[in-house]
């Protein structure tokens, strides 16, 4: 069994966040398809956007570390 590296672990984290963002966006879409006035759709969309912001923030932190 190999020892995980920081790069591999960061890559896995980003992939999990990307999948969570996609799932939240899909839930927003499904709630919106059921009822266009559904507040849950907007809340899931907000969750999706927060995951996007998290990805951006983590990428910026990683880029600063490499400088």
Structure description:
With 67 residues, the chain is mostly helical. The chain has one domain. The chain is 85% helix and 0% strand. It has two helices and no strands. The two termini are 31 Å apart.
Mean pLDDT: 93
Biggest sheet details: none
Radius of gyration: 16 Å
Alpha-beta classification: mainly alpha
Fraction in helix: over 70%
Q: What string, H for helix and E for strand, traces the elements in order?
A: HH
Described by the principal axes of the CA atoms, the overall outline is: elongated
Q: Please, how many domains?
A: 1
Quote the distance from N terminus to C terminus: 31 Å
| Uncertain runs | none
**Which strand-content bin applies to the residues?**
under 5%
Tally of helical runs: 2
The total strand number stands at 0
Task: Give me a quick take on this structure.
This protein is mainly alpha-helical and 67 residues long.
What would the keywords be for this entry?
67 residues; elongated; 2 helices; mainly alpha
Any chance you could write out the topology, listing elements then pairs?
Blueprint: H1 6-34, H2 39-66
Helix pairs in contact: 1-2
């Amino acid at each position: 069994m190999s020892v995980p590296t920081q790069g591999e672990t960061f890559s896995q984290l980003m992939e999990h966040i990307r999948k969570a963002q996609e799932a939240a966006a899909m839930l927003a879409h499904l709630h919106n398809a059921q009822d266009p006035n559904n507040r849950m759709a907007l809340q899931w969309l907000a969750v999706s956007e927060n995951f996007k912001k998290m990805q951006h923030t983590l990428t910026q932190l990683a880029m600063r570390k490499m400088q």
